[in-house]
Amino acid sequence: MAKLRGLVLVGLLGAVLFTASPAQAEPVRPVAVTVTVAHAGAAPVLAQTQAPGPVLDPAQTDKANTEKTKNKLVAGLVAVVLLGIVIWGRRIRSKKAKKA
Question: Domain locations in the chain?
């Protein structure tokens, strides 16, 4: 019975860990710095330009994160159900073995 409790505890802990959402963090955008010279005698002037790359829509990102979390939740529930079936089957088999 102790093994059963341990397996159920591990299954529930795994489900919780896989479905936990990461902390909401602000994305870091790298900024490229270029040096331009106005004329020969002047000191260099620093200008900031945005790095080339795709611009992500926050609404689409949030929707994708929601779908991913939902998929992980479904997979976790399926894993817990399958673990329960395996434990139940082993328990029935061990009872039959004790009777025989």
Answer: 2-21+55-99
